[in-house]
Amino acid sequence: MERYEEAARGLRAALSADPAMLDLVRLATLAPNGHNTQPWRFAVGDSRVRLLPDLTRCTPVVDPDDHHLYVGLGCAAETLAVASRAHGRSGDMAFDDRGDGSIDIDLSPGAAAVSELYHAIIRRQSTRSLYDAVDVPSGDLTLLEAAAAVDGVSVMLVTDRARCDAVLEHVIDGNTVQMADPAFVRELQDWIRFNPLDALSAGDGLFSGCVGAPSMPTWLGKWLFSLVFRTGAENRKYTKQVRSSAGIAIFVGDRQDKDHWIRVGRSFQRFALQATALGIRHAHINQPVEVPSVRASLADWLGIGDQKPDLIVRFGYAPTLPMSLRRPVAAVLEAVD
Ligand SMILES: Cc1cc2nc3c(=O)[nH]c(=O)nc-3n(C[C@H](O)[C@H](O)[C@H](O)COP(=O)(O)O)c2cc1C
């Protein structure tokens, strides 16, 4: 783990007062993204970065319409904007659908705006553990809602225990469908890194140590995974995890298109950074939005008409776990046209 931890720390090294563009890109790559596939490319110009989707890093089984891929892209775009503003650059962004799903972020000089969200970029993580069941004070819930406010996105915070249990039922329904699908299980397993060396050489994927699981050779990890990854056990795990959480946040884009999926990602990342700044952890429970029939049933329960829930996270208090890795910046650069 020593080399792993050193690499994770290096990725999160604090920036100098006048950082290079590539340092800002490094912070952007720390954004959350599904299965840690890092589905992005950065074309770095003199005063602009164009962020492009990397469709070779899609996850077609769990995310057939690439909706979570674009949510992840939105998370990276928002991270780059927050970091740029903290270092006196504009950070304004435009989704200009040239058909390639790219986002332009203006890095020309602007007023410096260092926020607590900026300082949280290097500390944020998905914390997939049991939380301590302590409520989040209402003032902090208000701060979370305010931070997540992005045009075109609604955020619903669920803290009432009975309502959290109703969302949990959708998580269990979705999980049960997914666990019965061998293609889903295979795709997930392909992105798991069972030991620090594999995680380091790939620089992507889901390192088992990030959920507190022991390290082991890949062949053994795959064999054990097929034995212990069972529907009943997973559903019991999610039940305990949700019941240990202070609440659940559900993100709903106004429309189902790339622009709105990116907006959902921006809103979620602002929520996650504000939560981190307040010492509040978060972890995804997206199963209900990944299975169409369960997504429709959750939309009904939420009373949101034709809209669809796009992303779901639980939040609360817990110690941190090991931080995840990213590929080096050089691996995500795109030639500027
Ligand atoms: C759109 C999106 C979907 C995600 N879905 C899940 C999920 O279903 N289950 C989960 O445990 N984590 C999920 N995550 C969290 C990622 O796995 C996580 O961000 C990634 O592994 C990097 O780890 P980090 O967030 O700790 O930096 C999702 C993240 C995003 C942005």
What descriptors fit this protein?
single chain, 337 residues, alpha+beta, NADH Oxidase, 2 domains, 4-stranded antiparallel β-sheet, 13 helices, 10 strands, globular, binds flavin mononucleotide
Summarize the structure in short.
By secondary structure, this protein is α+β, with helices and mostly antiparallel strands. The protein has 13 helices and ten strands.
CATH superfamily of the largest domain: NADH Oxidase
What is the beta-strand fraction? 5-15%
Q: Write out the distinct hetero groups bound to the structure.
A: flavin mononucleotide
Tell me the count of domains: 2
Task: Report the major sheet.
Answer: 4 strands, antiparallel
Number of strands: 10
What is the name of the CATH architecture of the largest domain?
3-Layer(aba) Sandwich
Separation of termini? 40 Å
Compute the CA-based radius of gyration.
Answer: 19 Å
* Mean of pLDDT: 96
| Structural class computed from helices and strand pairing | alpha+beta
CATH topology assignment of the largest domain: NADH Oxidase
CATH class of the largest domain: Alpha Beta
**Which strand order spans the largest sheet, edge to edge or round the barrel?**
1-2-4-3
Number of distinct helices? 13
Q: What level of helicity do the residues show? A: 40-55%
Spans of 5+ residues with little confidence (pLDDT < 50)? none
Spatial shape: globular
SSE pattern: HHEEHEEHHEHHEHEHHEHEHHE
